[in-house]
Design goal:
Blueprint lengths: L2 E6 L7 H16 L3 E6 L5 H12 L5 H25 L4 E4 L6 E3 L8 E4 L2 H8 L3 E5 L2 E3 L5 E3 L5 H12 L3 E6 L20 E3 H9 L7 H10 L3 E5 L7 E4 L3 H4 L5 E17 L4 H11 L7 E5 L5 E9 L3 H15 L3 E14 L9 H11 L6 E5 L2 E7 L3 H11 L6 H6 L1
Parallel strand pairs: 1-2, 1-9, 2-6, 3-6, 9-11, 10-12
Antiparallel strand pairs: 4-5, 7-8, 11-12, 13-15, 13-16, 14-15, 16-18, 17-18
The structure holds adenosine-5'-diphosphate, aspartic acid and magnesium ion.
Length: 413
Amino acid sequence: MALVIQKYGGTSVGSLDRIKAVAERVIETKKKGNDVVVVVSAMSGETDKLIGLANQISQNPDEREMDLLLSSGERISAALTAIAICELGFKSVSFTGRQVGIITNDSHTKAKIEKITGERVRNTLAKGIIPVIAGFQGVTESSDVTTLGRGGSDLTAVAVAAALGADFCEIYTDVDGVYTTDPNVVPNARKLSKISYDEMLELASLGAKVLQTRSVEFAKIYNVPVVVRSSFSNNPGTLVVKEDKEMEKVVVSGVAYDKNQAKITAIAVHDKPGIAAKLFNAVAGANIVVDMIVQNISSDGKATDISFTVPKTESKKALKITEETVAEIGAKGVVLREDIAKVSIIGVGMRTHSGVAAKMFETLAKHGINIIMISTSEIKISCVVDSKYTELAVRVLHDAFELGERKRKRTKK
Ligand code: ADP
Ligand code: ASP
Ligand code: MG
């Protein structure tokens, strides 16, 4: 008998029929003799709808209030899923994040999990009852409701799996695994039977939203085997596990894109020690995560342009802070650009192979795509491009690194 955590995403619980189908799958797993803990997302579109409601009242709503508001989406689907399981003759109870003891820090809208007591889940399982947990939420030590960032139900599932010592954590979504790139953008993307935690971490943090980045970090730290599968089929999914020797042979294993980026440029700031420190301290002080940073020294050597990227959702806040800081340190101005996207190639094999960057740049150039910024790490190369070229860039890179299904296979379909 295994202990299985099953997480169902927004589309998988997107309608009452879908919730009934989820209940059936949960019961099937239970009937096979397993213990099952269910984690659900809000019904698809629900979180965006709630954000929209708040934004009709305020462009800058209080983040504590947003958390209480957004946590309600997952509560609805959790209760409905438990009702659907009971209706099929099995015992089930739903829980909020607080009820299962998911304790977080107080960083509202992107809270970090500090501990999970999990007492009630263990007791419920011991009585043969199926617990259904509302994903994406926790509570601070002082009882304020928090949420775990967009896509955060993945993190709830992996963290609960780690806390309970589950045998594996199944993430049910609307695609049947992790592909070489988004299968909704590149039709001949290839499903991977397994992927290393590190590659998945890069793919996720570079925009492949199939798994939330922090859920992969958690899975890696606590060594939780994760399986990404479809709730619409019984196809085998993708196993996210520790790296093995075979994986190193593949130079590039995936292409990701992220349209949720904005670029801020402080023009002609003084070229002297302490300027960058001042600027990025101010941005970090507002809890904004900066991704890429590029600094160009001007031709006269006295002034420098500093460009950096931030999540689009935080761009206005970052712009205001940069303008304020620049007013103190002196500069020609600040420019915000939101029509950009980051396109990246990922592969653990890059550690041992050369010429990968050159091939990426050549491929983009051949298709007339200008590179605005570049950043590299041991196992990834990212380029910021004009957002109108995102899909084209993803497709041509996927082709150039021969990641797609072989032609022979495609003609058979
Ligand atoms: P859920 O609501 O189930 O959490 P998400 O929308 O968050 O689902 O994630 C699934 C989506 O991730 C897919 O529909 C797909 O468009 C997208 N995606 C992006 N990159 C990849 C990839 N490399 N492999 C699979 N799916 C990907
Ligand atoms: N409902 C939340 C979101 O849309 C969390 C999740 O789906 O995982 O981001
Ligand atoms: Mg998701």
